[in-house]
Structure formats: structure tokens, C-alpha cells
Amino acid sequence: MLKTYQYEQLSAQDIDRLTLRNTDPNNAIQDTVEQIIAQVEQNGDDALRQLALKYDQISLDALYLDEAEIEALAATISRQQQRALEIAFQNIHKFHATQLKKERTIETMPGVTCWREVRPIEKVGLYIPGGSAVLPSTLLMLGVPARIAGCKEIVVCSPPQKDGKVNGFIAYCLKLLQIKKIYLTGGAQAVAAMAYGTESVPRVDKIFGPGNQFVTKAKSLIQSRTQVSIDMPAGPSEVLVIADESANADYIAADLLAQAEHGADSQAVLVSTSSSLIEAVNQALLLQLGELPRAAIAQKAIENSYAICTTDITTALAFSNKYAPEHLIIQSDDWKRLVYGVQNAGSVFLGHLTPESVGDYASGTNHTLPTSGYARSYSGVSVDSFVKKITFQQLSQDGLRQIGSTVEILAELEGLQAHKNAVSIRLKDLES
Amino acid sequence: MLKTYQYEQLSAQDIDRLTLRNTDPNNAIQDTVEQIIAQVEQNGDDALRQLALKYDQISLDALYLDEAEIEALAATISRQQQRALEIAFQNIHKFHATQLKKERTIETMPGVTCWREVRPIEKVGLYIPGGSAVLPSTLLMLGVPARIAGCKEIVVCSPPQKDGKVNGFIAYCLKLLQIKKIYLTGGAQAVAAMAYGTESVPRVDKIFGPGNQFVTKAKSLIQSRTQVSIDMPAGPSEVLVIADESANADYIAADLLAQAEHGADSQAVLVSTSSSLIEAVNQALLLQLGELPRAAIAQKAIENSYAICTTDITTALAFSNKYAPEHLIIQSDDWKRLVYGVQNAGSVFLGHLTPESVGDYASGTNHTLPTSGYARSYSGVSVDSFVKKITFQQLSQDGLRQIGSTVEILAELEGLQAHKNAVSIRLKDLES
């Protein structure tokens, strides 16, 4: 079922084409999103109510759920489900807590002291999708690092379900995160509300979270025209599996399908040193696909995917680095040797017993990751995404004496006399 | 000369207006920039040559200077100037070297091991402006962290000077950075060349550097339509000075003017607890302004600036955090107490003897900083800007047994059966 290529037969152009993602610029929806943004900017809460009626078929009075409502909803899920969410929360918390580090102070010259201080981004907005799939895991993946960073205000938006509420899983995650409100707005309107603020929804400094093409387009527009920043550009989800002779075809097929069920535009790539393994994976795909509730979606994604057969695992890794996958699974006994060679990827799953889905939910790593090749220059979401690092410097008299003439010379050669003056006027006082 | 406001008399709207930057969307230049980008994407080097003729009035054969040419140019500057650039290089290197940190490995559950690994962004592009002012300091500020990060390819673009070369200061910095080529292209065309690649200029993964409005617009367009990322959005430079009774009016005036000489759109804000100090600063501004070669520019920037008088320094700091200045100077004997309260700023200069210009050139901190209020969510450029952090995870048999059911439950409640299967199929083998 997977189109299969022999690596040695691929030209440089072929490889460029295979590593290029299906990037639909979505210009078709631009006008709609522009209108929604303008509507929310101008009419605030009224616009959000109208848009909830139009897109979510729900008439809202209050635009948010309060603590008591969240508490009640959270109580509707089973203890087993609560426990699973708690374990995920704990693991994500443990891993992300390692990311907040103390910065070192350094004297670059005697009396010239420099350091950085970490400060939380004060107000952050988390968008939690709630259309075809409701994703409480995403709330944990964004909420936990925001809490560890110490953000003062965490605004959460999610589209209202048919009953005008959110589901119990989302509510339970809010409880775990000690977030006492959730705003009932979805799509481009939620992004606009957090970017401009409305009577109900506070304006934030940075917006996080995945979403459909309307959400993605709105985030991109907001980024280019306001001072609100976004976590990262988003595209369809993807996995690349590197597998050698030691790999299990059934496991690989299961991992490819876990990716494929996300959406018809997902991509699942297999790069293997064994052509017989690729064949076995194709057979396993056929078998496993038949049993999936989301088989139609997964089938389309698999048609959009491919396998590459390479002569050795180093070549497989080189291709993976060119592709820069969101998720990379290395199913090889030899995974330890390969870690160092991973240059471009979002999150990496090592060995035969580490399926991507453990990272999607509960191993502790973040699942908000760069897609579409952005792993070449972006990291996934982490505590880093919720803080700024501010540089500080302080000069003693000795420090200014040490560095003064250097700054004067450099300011002068750049033709910036006032920059020089700011040093000279102080130096003169020291000398007198 | 500075318009002065009494803080207590300002309404919330006034404060919003005062903290809002003069953000010109520059839609007027959008068409020009679009055309330049399209031209470079389609015609590569030919387009760069045509645009150099049009905008830099120079006919270029080779589009870059090689190592020998750089060497020759670097030898044309004085030993004193070389030494000043070396000291700046060393201090910037010392400070930025502290930013590369080892990440911790953690077992979130027995047998579930997670960690991050830092990898350089492979190919980075540095834009060094060369119009009204040539800025070798910017080359150091971008080149040093790129080298420390370990980027494999560092592409530097700067517009050709009248002689078809770059000046000796830039050349000497290239030497210090061991960069053996510089591409002679400026403006939007340089950004497009690094984003799409031409016959001469390599395509990069991330583009850094300040520039005029054409450069800024090109970076913004590139970010929204390619997989190439950028350092941060850019606006006019700015400083905010917090000063109490202990401050020296002459020093403050010199610092405000150092900012003002950057451009007529620069902003220099003074927030002080002393109205007599504000008055003294105004007098000092008049005196110092007269002697500046760039007085006309500075004068305009000062007209675009203001002072605020507050009753106490805590209120001054609160206003500064709302403004989120690129540069914050705290001229107070009491600076130590105020460090913790700084929430939003790019780089901070503490005490009476730490003018901004030391950080612009040589203290060691970076001068590529968030403007226009972006300091609320962005950090300045650092080694972090040149690396990605990739998450890794590896499960032992015990690890999968520990976490398996949690993942199964969570996948099921999100309706993602194939995610569950990827775990179940492995667990089944462990049990048998």
C-alpha cells in the first residue's frame, strides 16, 4: 500500500519533492478568517455569541464556565479516567520541571557583570480544539509548562459542545491545572478574542495551541499584524519511522496508522534498510486498517505516504534529517548509536517498545511539535516557550574604566557620536 | 523639550496610548517587496545583480567576497580599531558561552526515560545592514552565538558599498568569526536570496538581523509563506530610563540622545520620581543636542518621546513593565532592589555607570532585542536562537508495562483507536 522508492534511484530533486510537505496556503479561507477577526475586534462578546450560534449551533449567555461548573463536569468522568489524566499530568510535570534553569552570572571584564533572568510571559492564551476530536491531552501539554513557567494569567478557549459546555475530560484537566475558567469560543474567533481582548476574554501576550485551518490562519494573521506572538506555525501531523532488520512489522504498521488516523492530510513515512520488512509492513497495514473506526481517514493518509528502502541505516537517518519529521521513531536494536546523528526532528521515540502514542499522552515530553519541516529551526513547546530571558548588566567604576575606550572607539567607527558621549560624559567624571 | 505627564493624571486609556508604539504597517512598500521577492525567487543571481545596480548603484560580477578579499579589507583598519573589535568579540563570546547548557535526563516513571538534546540550526542567514550606518557590532552579535551554537553554515549578506565591497570593520569581524565569504546583497533581495537560495547564495533555515522597512517586511512575508523562520519582528529602537533623585541629569540626557540618534522614529522615554530632575534633563538635552552630528534625527526622535513623573519608583517600574522597553536603564542607587520587579524588557542597564551603549557594543550581552512591546513575549537573540531542543524518550519493558494502560485509556477517551493499538500490540507481546 505504501508507495516504495529505492533510495539510490532517487535524484536530488526527487528527495526535495519527497521531503516537501503538502503545504496548502489556504488562501481560500483567508477572507472568512479576516472577516471573523474584524468582527471580534469590533464587537467583542457580541461577535463571539453570534459566531457560536453560526459555527457551533449554540446560543450562549455567559461566554465561559466558572469554577463550580468545571468542578461539576470534572466529576462526571470515571475514576479510572481521572487517574489516567493524573498520571499524564504528573509525568508531563516531572519532565517539564527540569527545563527551568538558573542562569549564570559572569564578569566579562573586571567590574562588568552580565547575567540573564528568566521571567514568565505574563498572559498566555491556550487554544484547545474541540471539533472532530476533543483533546484534553493538549490542555495538559500547554497548561503544565505555563504553570511551571509561572504565567500570571492562563486564558483557555475551547469551542462549546452541543450542550453549551466542555466535556468532563477537559474539565478534569482544568482542575488539575488549577485553572478556574474556560472560555466557550473556538476557531478563528477564539484566536481573535485572545489577541484583541473582549469584554469577557482577556487579551494575552502569546497564543498557543493546534487547531483546524481557520485557527492556523488566524494565528498567522495575528502574528503578522499585532504584538501578540504565537507558539509556532502549524501543519498536518506526521511521523517518520526508521527501521532495520531488527524491527517488528506489526509495531511499525501500528505506529504508521496511529499517525494516519489524525487526518487525511497526515503523512506516515517508513525508511528501512530491509525491503522484506517494508513488504511485511504493507501486509500488516492491510490487516490492521480494516479494524479501525477511523479507517477511511487513515486509508487516505496512507495513500499520501510512502516508504524508502536504503542500503544502510546512516543513509536512512540522513534522509530523516532532510525530512525533519515532527515525530521520529527509530525501531532498531542499535538506537543508542543513532541518537547523536538526529539533527532535525520534533520528538524522537527510541527502540521497539516506544510508540509515538506514549509521547502523545503520558511519557512526559510535549506533543506540541514543529511540523512541515519546521523542525529544522523550531523546537517543540516547552517551559522555554512560556518565558522570556532578560539580560542585565551592571558596571562598577572599574568596569567603566576597563570597557570605556572600547565602546568609544566602536561608537565612533559606526558614526554614532551620542553613543560615544554616553560613555565619555561618565568617564570624565571618574577621572576628575 | 520632552512632553511631560503626571502619572496620577493619566487615565488607563492614556497609558495604553503612551505604551503603544508608532507601528506603521508599511503597506505602501508591500508591493515593491513582493516584486523583489518574486524576482529573486525566479531569477536568482541575475535578479541580485539587477537589484544591486538599481538600489546600490553598483555593477557586480561575483556576488560575494572571498577569503583573500576579506583578509585584505580587514588589514585596512587601524590596530586600535581591530583591538576594540577583538575586545567586543571576546566579551560577547564569554557571556554567550554561558548559555549553552547540558540538559537533564529524567525517568518520569520506572523505565520511562525522557531527555532533550540541543542541536544547532544547520544553516543560518545573518543580515548586516549597510545603508545609512554600517554596523560591524551587529555582525558580532549574530555571528558569535551562531558559532557557539555550532551552526554548520553561516551565510552573511550585506549591501555592497560604493566600491563594490564591504568596509574593513565588517571584514575584520568576519575574520574574528572565521567566516570566509560575504554575499554582496542588501535589502529585501538579501532576505529573499537566503530564503529561496540562488546560484551563489545558499538557502538557510532561519534568518536573523535588523534592517530598514524593506528588510523587515521581507522577513515578515518570508516567515508567513516559507518554512524559513526569522529571529523576531522588528520595529524602531527605543529606551526607557527610570531615574530617581540619585540620578545625574547629564547622564540621562546622554542616554536618551544615544537612543534618539538611531532614527527619527526612535523613542526615548524618561520615567522619574523627580520633576526637577526632568527639568534638568530637558536643559541638558538642549545643550548636548547642539553638538551632535546627527542632531536633526535626534531632535525628531526627542519630539516623538516623553517624560512621566511618578510619585514613587515602584509606579515607575510598573509603567515600564507595561511599556516593555527594548532597553531599560535604571539610574538609581537603589537598583538592586528593583531587579526582581523587572518583568518586561529586552536588556537592562543598572546603576549610574551603565549606559546603554556599553551593551550595544561590548559588555557581552546581545543588542538584537525585542522592540515595540514584543519584550512581553520575546527574548533578545542568544545562543538559544540558534539551536533547537529535540525531545527523546525510550521505554524499557518495565516502562511500557508501567505506562501502557494510562496511554490506552487516554487514547480511547480521545477516540483515537490506532493510538491505543500501538501500545496494545506491544503490551500483548510482553505478556505472552
From TrEMBL, chains A, B:
Binding site for substrate: 237, 259, 262, 327, 360, 414, 419
Protein known as: Histidinol dehydrogenase
Active site: 326 (proton acceptor), 327 (proton acceptor)
Pfam family, one: Histidinol_dh
Cofactor binding description: Binds 1 zinc ion per subunit.
GO molecular function: histidinol dehydrogenase activity; NAD binding; zinc ion binding
HAMAP family named among the record's database cross-references: HisD
InterPro entries from the UniProt entry: Ald_DH/histidinol_DH, Histidinol_DH_CS, Histidinol_DH_monofunct, Hstdl_DH
Family stated for the protein in its record: Belongs to the histidinol dehydrogenase family.
Gene name as annotated: hisD
Native source species: Sphingobacterium corticibacter
